[in-house]
Please model this.
Amino acid sequence: MINNILANQSIFERLGMKKKYKVKLSQPQRNQLLEMVRNGKEKAKKITHARIILQADSGSEGPALKAKVIAKNLNVHERTVHRVRERFANEGLEVALNRKQHRKYKPRKLDGDQEAHLVALCCGKPPEGRKEWTLTLLSENLIKLEITDSVSRSTVHRTLKKMNLNLG
Model:
């Protein structure tokens, strides 16, 4: 029984807090969001965030709906509504519309030019005294030829696998 009551209450209600982040849109901002929603040419998450902001707008033309209602209308979690409102209030419209970049994002070790050098090296003759290229030899030669500062044999392996190249 208590779990059902807690599940139906919003996070802010449970903590006894009022709605902290209010959304007030200017007319140009509102028009931009309406256009974005009408066109539908943006990413789905961006359009959903635009709809959240439009429904949360407490300005003169906005409906100023509560988080529960917005979450139900747009089929998102209530916490998503709170996060979008908070990001709008603290960081602005563009930040609230766009998703955060993943924290664990790592840029590629080899760019297109370096990958082309790797393929050319792989398709060429192996070094003197060797019958064929190995991943270690390829990674060492990429560094020796100053194509890249450092690269592991596993990076070379993934790159060749991505290109459907086989050393054997």
About this structure: The longest helix spans residues 78-91. The radius of gyration is 26 Å.
